[in-house]
Amino acid sequence: MSPDRLRLLVADDERHARLLVRGYAAGAADVEIAGECANGDDLSASIAAVRPDALLLDVRMAGRDVFVVLAAEESSRPPLPAVIFATAYDTYAVRAFELNAVDYLVKPYPRERFLAALERVRRRSVPERAGLARVIRDLGPRPDRLLVPDGRRMVPIALADIVWIKAEGDYSRVHTKDRSYLVSRSLKELESRLDPTAFLRLHRSTIVQASHIAEVRPAGSARYHMHLDDGTTVIVSRSRARELKDRIL
């Protein structure tokens, strides 16, 4: 990073958002907008072409999932530039970024907040940004742990510790052997992020982790009762019974 100018790549699929950042940076002599990117498909090429000191990244752009792109970049061309995440609505993601000491901006943000985020980037060394790879895995499509709310903070739980998940309206309750956590994600959203070879959807309101199955018993009419190793018993619906049978040798 130059001691005089910070080269910034702006990645946002909304043109007015990119123009806003250009306006914010115009009065800052130590900031250079080195390039722009409007979708996830072009993100990797833009990082390689621009080689920015920092990346202002909209969390949900059109095209490829940005966390998939960052994960590939981190493994092939480390270290990544310092990343300032931007989000308009994902409160829990913002709290996750805080947990992992990653810069973030909540849209709409004022110029002062934008400049403060850049100043935080300047104060950071590359080793201090090592936690970014962990954030990418946590928030990407195939995490190895989930960040869940615990009172006023976020805590990570390993996927291996999840026994089962139950829908509660538009929310989901994630059960481990020790306790449960209510998360602001639908069961369908969580299912899309879980490995289908490890987790089974047994009912429209229930997902279980196969490694925690203790016993399965027929319950008549093509139904089954599944007993988990934490003492929970769940019903396998008729529509999901075929998937369960496919797992039985």
In short, what is this structure?
By secondary structure, this protein is an alpha/beta fold.
Provide structural commentary.
- With 249 residues, the chain is an alpha/beta fold.
- It folds into 2 domains: 6-139, Response regulator (Rossmann fold); 145-247, OB fold (Dihydrolipoamide Acetyltransferase, E2P) (Beta Barrel).
- Helices cover 31% and strands 34% of the residues.
- It contains 8 helices and 15 strands.
- A 5-stranded parallel beta sheet has the order 2-1-3-4-5, sandwiched between helices.
- Helix 3 packs antiparallel against helix 6.
- The longest helix has 13 residues, at 111-123.
- The N and C termini lie far apart (57 Å).
Estimated share of beta-strand residues: 25-35%
- Could you spell the SSE succession in H and E letters? EHEHEHEHEHHEEEEEHEEEEEH
Return residue spans where pLDDT drops below 50 for at least 5 consecutive residues: none
Instruction: Please give the alpha-carbon distance between the first and last residues.
Output: 57 Å
Shape: elongated
CATH architecture name of the largest domain: 3-Layer(aba) Sandwich
Mean pLDDT across every amino acid position: 87
- The CATH class of the largest domain turns out to be Alpha Beta
The total domain count is: 2
Structural class: alpha/beta
Could you tell me the radius of gyration in angstroms? 22 Å
